[in-house]
Specification:
signal; about 55% helix; Recoverin, domain 1; mainly alpha; disordered N terminus; 6 helices
Length: about 130
């Protein structure tokens, strides 16, 4: 899902498949309500613990967050820049949003919401966040 954190170019079939597999795997692992997860993909976030677990799971599998709940900024930027060519914009957003919260699940939740809020309106983030 995620995810998180964006498209000017379409995802390759391989990348789309990876994201789909991560999303489906994390739905099974976290037991998040699929409807809540689907709404989150569209940017509608509810304060739901299972959704937060799902976002953490997805971000960890994508390499954006480590086991301690820290945003891995360089890896996140490197992966996102493959799909969003404005590295300065991506790096700035990641730095602004990479704020560790009280728990890893809250960090993932706030990171995803922040990344989406900073994205230009014409970017399609649905596949990442």
């Amino acid at each position: 899902m995620l995810f998180l954190l964006i498209f000017v170019n379409a995802l390759s079939k391989e990348d789309a498949e990876i994201l789909r597999n991560v999303h489906e795997s994390c739905i099974k692992e976290t037991s998040v309500d699929p409807e809540i997860a689907s709404k989150a993909i569209k940017g509608e976030y509810v304060d739901d613990e299972k959704l937060k677990e799902h976002l953490l799971c997805s971000n960890k599998k994508l390499g954006f967050i480590d086991d301690d709940g820290n945003i891995i900024e360089d890896v996140t930027v490197t992966k996102l820049v493959k799909h969003f060519p404005n590295e300065q914009l991506v790096r700035s957003a990641v730095q602004k949003c990479a704020i560790k919260q009280d728990t890893p699940v809250e960090t993932a939740f706030q990171f995803v919401k922040c990344m989406r809020s900073l994205a230009p309106k014409d970017m399609n983030l649905d596949s990442f966040f």
